[in-house]
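TASK: fixed-backbone design
INPUT:
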């Protein structure tokens, strides 16, 4: 799978105040106020191609976000970066390599614990570094059949090959994935964090390439 190109639609959340919300990646920040007038540019530093993201207002109970109207193309080994201009402030996400690491979930087996009836239990995976290794694993737990829907997520170090799942309602329709990412650091102040996902894809891995989750602390 090395070298296969995936298409991604970068997603950037920007607020004043607030904090990262690991209980719902569709509302990645809680307690903040959306910044609606920033300029957000995502660049493939290897090919020197960029796209400018546009703001999409909050709707359907989900917070506003910056997204692209076209695919952002990058593949294993290529570097990507993000530049955000908000008022007189500029925040730059360091050029970060796209990994091609991949994971394979070994427990629970496919179809097991679909209701999550027996908790706690460990989500367990194996990790293959590939030729462009990732530094962390993103874990996602999704169930759109519950009310409210469940969209929990976590970021764990690459040497952690399991994640304990507990405290979730017993219900049909859970989907779980563990997928390698590199963390993007930012300059310019504020409190920002970004993730560049692997371009490898296995049977338990979805949503590839860059997902940038960002928030800015309001300056006094």
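OUTPUT:
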């Amino acid at each position: 799978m090395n070298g296969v190109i995936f298409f991604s639609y970068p997603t950037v959340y920007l607020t004043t105040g607030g904090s990262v919300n690991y209980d719902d990646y569709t509302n990645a920040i809680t307690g903040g106020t959306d910044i609606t007038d920033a300029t957000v540019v995502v660049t493939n530093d290897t090919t020197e191609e960029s796209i400018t993201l546009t703001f999409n207002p909050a709707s359907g109970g989900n917070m506003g976000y910056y997204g692209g109207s076209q695919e952002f193309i990058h593949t294993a080994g290529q570097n990507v970066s993000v530049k955000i201009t908000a008022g007189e402030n500029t925040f730059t996400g360091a050029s970060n390599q796209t990994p091609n690491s991949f994971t394979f979930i070994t427990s629970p087996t496919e179809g097991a614990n679909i209701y999550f009836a027996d908790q706690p239990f460990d989500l367990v995976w194996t990790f293959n570094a590939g030729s462009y290794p990732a530094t962390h694993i993103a874990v996602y737990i999704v169930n759109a059949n519950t009310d409210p829907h469940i969209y929990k997520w976590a970021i764990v170090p690459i040497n952690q090959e399991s994640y304990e799942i507990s405290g979730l309602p017993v219900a049909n329709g859970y989907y779980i994935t563990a997928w390698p990412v590199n963390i993007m650091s930012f300059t310019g102040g504020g409190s920002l964090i970004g993730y560049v996902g692997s371009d490898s894809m296995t049977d338990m891995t979805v949503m590839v390439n860059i997902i940038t989750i960002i928030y800015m602390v309001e300056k006094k």
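COMMENT: Confidence is low (pLDDT under 50) at residues 1-7, 201-220.
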